[in-house]
Design goal:
- It is a single chain.
- The protein is mainly α and about 120 residues long.
- The chain is built from three helices and no strands.
- The protein has helices spanning about 1-40, 45-70, 80-120.
Length: about 120
């Protein structure tokens, strides 16, 4: 009974991880498209705003890359239960990093909006 329940729970976790991987891939693709639309980056007035803007861009790029690497490491599904749990964990961490990257992009976009609002 217990073994069947554990097997059922592992199968549910695998299904959820596959959904999370697709969410992560969609989010990473959307971020690439959003950043490509913003290029070239506008020059911020003042060195502090420029440094903050570059820090947000760099933070988004680094977290995007970490998420992409974690997601790429999960292309092949694992069969052993312990390996499957590591696979699930990598997918969850990749999704978290992707949302951090989206948050950095959103913060950068908000900074640009508020700068334009205050100066224009």
């Amino acid at each position: 009974m217990l073994t069947n329940q554990l097997r059922h729970d592992l199968q549910w976790l695998k299904r959820q991880a596959r959904k999370d991987r697709w969410i992560t891939i969609a989010l990473l693709s959307g971020l690439v498209a959003a950043w490509a639309r913003q290029l070239p980056l506008p020059q911020a007035p003042g060195p502090i705003l420029w440094a903050l803007s570059l820090a947000l861009v760099a933070g988004s790029a680094i977290t995007w890359l970490a998420s992409a690497l974690l997601t790429a490491a999960t292309l092949r599904e694992r069969r052993e239960p312990v390996e499957a749990l590591r696979w699930i964990s990598r997918i969850q961490r990749g999704k978290t990093w992707a949302f951090w990257s989206a948050g950095a992009y959103t913060a950068w976009h908000l900074l640009q909006f508020l700068t334009a609002l205050m100066l224009g």
